[in-house]
Design a protein that fits this description.
Shape: globular
Helix content: 25-40%
Radius of gyration: 22 Å
CATH topology of the largest domain: pyruvate-formate lyase- activating enzyme
Largest sheet: 9 strands, mixed
CATH superfamily of the largest domain: tm_1862 like domain
Number of domains: 2
Strand content: 15-25%
Number of helices: 17
Distance between the termini: 22 Å
Structural class: alpha/beta
Length: about 450
């Protein structure tokens, strides 16, 4: 593997089209309300009896924030009503009880994540309360990954101490950009010194892994300015980095209208920001995992990528494949062996469902044989960056070249551009192809091939 990527902007321009991020297949726009709590329970019981790996991944969505970041596309609400947060924590416990009735008591958690919103908007006492609830109902493996998203802006040492005592060993902090003019435009005022303070606390308390989030394409960004942020980030030496593309979708996300169109960098500048980010980070020794993610050479993500055990789900890249993911709280998306579910998005419906003794499933999708096959193909390409045709043929009883003839024909252009290598027995993603892995995966997406009047809108692939 090359130590440093060289990014071809002309290729980025060519393939810069809307497309799914493939945190699932089928993707979330195809979830429907024909799936409810009864379907969920049936699939839970089936997996509980039949799944090979009984380990659990659990996610808790904590939607509360102190202020609104204008770029944010997450489901969140701004509040300082602490009793409202207490009420929500109570309903999370009720939801856990409903789930625990359906699964074997000996199944252990190998992965826990709190996302949001802003999990650290909870008070230290509320963090402790929720942590105690989770540990009262679930047993954890000794090597469990327990991660949390942190906002340095309202963080105190007591918050970090409460997280550590609750078992957290990994944290992820949003930075986006250190430049004050960018921060002002997106309503996220975060002085560099408080980010550095949060990192010092995490390391002092013994958190094993630190991830920092950046974003390119935000208002007022340009190369000289953004490079200063990258230089400061490299000084902080995070274990992992995520560099996200800002998706400006004001017609869907109404508060993004507070960001004026003329503030957003032109497409050419945005692509140069991406090129600079990738080349600078890989030049500094980080490994480009794929999509938005970078990690140190000795990081578990890098090792998993190298040994073929990397996986991808709604939390991004993961080192744990083939396990059930149970999501708690509003909008939470769970994943069973052949079912995706999403909880109600509004508090009222979420609470009402739980009060009726029902798991709060709003919608989802049950996967058919073709969905399972294509999900496997897309996952292997996005995580292993190669696919051995024989493995798929033996597992699903197909002739790969016949079944995916149209996809292979479409990939010939990608091969001409040096992104993939089509061999008789395998498909290999070449290093430049990792930048455009979404585009490559789209060729195997049956839902994108359907003729629909109201096709879902996706963010751009670059």
């Amino acid at each position: 593997m090359e130590d440093k990527f060289k990014v071809n902007i002309d290729l980025l321009k060519k393939y810069d089209v809307p497309g799914p991020r493939y945190t699932s297949y089928p993707t979330a726009p195809y979830f429907h309300d024909g799936i409810n709590y009864r379907n969920y329970i049936d699939h839970i019981r089936h997996d509980d009896e039949n799944i090979e790996n009984g380990d659990l991944s659990v996610y808790f969505h904590l939607p509360f924030c102190d202020t609104l970041c204008y770029f944010c596309g997450c489901n969140m609400m701004v509040t300082r009503n602490w009793s409202r947060i207490d009420e929500y924590i109570g309903y999370l416990e009720k939801e856990i009880r409903l789930l625990k009735k359906e699964i074997s008591p000996d199944r252990k958690v190998i992965q826990l994540h709190w996302g949001g919103g802003t999990p650290t908007h909870l008070s230290p006492d509320q963090i402790t309360r929720l942590g105690n609830i989770i540990h009262a109902y679930f047993d954890f493996r000794k090597d469990a990954e327990i991660g949390v998203e942190i906002d340095p802006r309202e963080l105190t040492f007591d918050h970090m101490k409460a997280l550590k005592l609750a078992g957290f060993n990994r944290c992820s902090m949003g930075v986006q950009d250190f430049d004050p003019s960018v921060q002002q435009a997106v309503n996220r005022i975060q002085p560099e010194k408080i980010t550095r303070q949060a990192i010092e606390w995490a390391r002092e308390l013994g958190f094993q892994s630190l991830n920092l989030d950046l974003m390119y394409g935000l208002p007022h960004q340009h190369e000289e300015q953004y490079e200063k942020t990258l230089d400061k980030i490299l000084e902080l030496c995070p274990d992992r980095l995520a560099v996200f593309n800002y998706a400006h979708l004001p017609e869907i996300i109404k508060h993004q209208r507070l960001i004026r169109e003329e503030w957003i960098p032109p497409r050419e500048v945005k692509l140069r920001l991406l090129k600079m980010s990738i080349e600078k980070l890989t030049g500094a020794g980080y490994v480009y995992i794929g999509m938005d993610h970078f990690a140190r050479p000795d990081d578990e993500l890098t090792l998993a990528m190298n040994n073929g055990t990397l996986y991808r789900n709604f939390q991004g890249y993961s080192t744990h494949a083939g396990i059930n993911l149970f999501a708690f709280g509003i909008t939470g998306i769970g994943m069973l062996s052949d079912l995706y579910t999403q909880n109600f998005k509004k508090f009222k419906e979420y609470y009402e469902s739980i009060d009726k003794g029902r798991l709060p499933v709003m919608r989802g999708i049950s996967l058919n044989e073709d969905d399972l096959l294509r999900r496997d193909v897309i996952t292997r390409l996005m995580c292993n960056f190669q696919l051995v045709k024989k493995d798929i043929e033996e597992k699903y009883g197909i002739d790969f070249d016949t079944y995916f003839g149209n996809a292979l024909s479409s990939l010939e252009t990608f091969q001409e551009d040096g992104l993939v290598q089509l061999e008789v027995d395998k498909i290999r993603i070449l290093p430049p192809g990792r930048l455009l892995i979404r585009n490559i995966a789209m060729n195997f997406d049956a839902y994108l091939m359907k003729k629909e009047n109201n096709k879902p809108k996706f963010s751009r692939t670059v």
